[in-house]
Amino acid sequence: MLSVGFLSSQANLEGVNQSEIPEDVQELVSQLFDMARRGDTDTLAQYIDHGVDANLRNQDGNSLLMIAAYSGHHTCVEMLAAHGADVNALNDRGQSPLAGAIFKQEPEVIDSLLRHGADPTAGQPNAIDTARMFGREDLVERLHARGA
User: Fold this and answer.
1) Taking CA atoms, which of 43, 91, 122, 127 is between 20 and 30 Å from 146?
2) Are the C-beta atoms of 98 and 113 separated by less than 8 Å?
3) Is 14 within 8 Å of 59 (Cβ atoms)?
4) Measuring CA to CA, how many Å separate 100 from each of 50, 63, 125, 141?
5) CA-based Rg of the chain, rounded to a whole angstrom?
6) What is the 3-class SS of 30-48, one letter each residue?
7) pLDDT in tens, 96-141
8) Domain ranges of the chain
9) Which of the pair, 52 or 11, is modelled with greater confidence?
10) Each residue of 50-107: pLDDT tens digit?
11) Entry pTM
C-alpha cells in the first residue's frame, strides 16, 4: 500500500491545487474512489483501517460514502458509516447520499443510510423532494415517519 499519511491529515481535497499533491497520492485517491464506485468494501476498509479518512472527498466534494451510495453498494456504505463517514455530507452541488440513493433507486442503500442517521431534509433537492419527483410516495411517507 502507498503511504496514507497525506490522506489522513487532509481529508478534504476540494480546492487543493492538484499540482501540490504528489502523483502517487493522486493515484491512490483515484483508486480509493474507484473502490467505492465498484463496491470493493474489503480493500477500501483496509486502507481506512490504515489511516485513510473515511470522510475523504474528491475535487467535486463527493465523499467515498456518496460514491458508494450512488453506485448502490450498501455493504460499502455500512462499512464507511461504521468507520465514521458522515452520512449527511453534501457534495459541491448540495446533494446528499440519501437523495442520491433515492434517485438511483437503491433500497438497501436507503435502508443503510437511514439506519446510520441520514437526514431526509439535508441537501437540495433533499431526499423527500427527490422521492416526490420520482412518484415514490411510499418513501415520502417513510421519510416523514422518521421525523422529517
Assistant:
1) 91
2) yes
3) yes
4) 28, 12, 10, 18
5) 15
6) HHHHHHHHHCCHHHHHHHH
7) 999 999 999 999 999 999 999 999 999 999 999 999 999 999 999 9
8) 5-145
9) 52
10) 999 999 999 899 999 999 999 999 999 999 999 999 999 999 999 999 999 999 999 9
11) 0.85
What is the rounded distance in angstroms from the CA atom of residue 37 to the CA atom of residue 28? Answer: 14
82: Cβ contacts below 8 Å, ≥ 6 apart: none
Torsion of CA 42, 43, 46, 50, to 10 degrees: -160
Q: In CATH, what class is 5-145?
A: mainly alpha
- Cα 120 to chain center, whole Å? 15
Per-residue pLDDT tens for 40-51? 999 999 999 999
28: enclosing H helix or E strand? helix 23-38
Q: At 57, give phi and psi (nearest 5°).
A: -120, 150
Q: How confident is the model at residue 15 (pLDDT cuts 50, 70, 90)?
A: low
Structural element, H or E, at residue 110: helix 107-115
Angle between helices 74-82 and 41-49 (to 10 degrees): 10
Count of beta carbons in the 10 Å neighbourhood of residue 120? 28
Residue type, 107: P
Query: What's the one-letter identity of residue 73?
Result: H
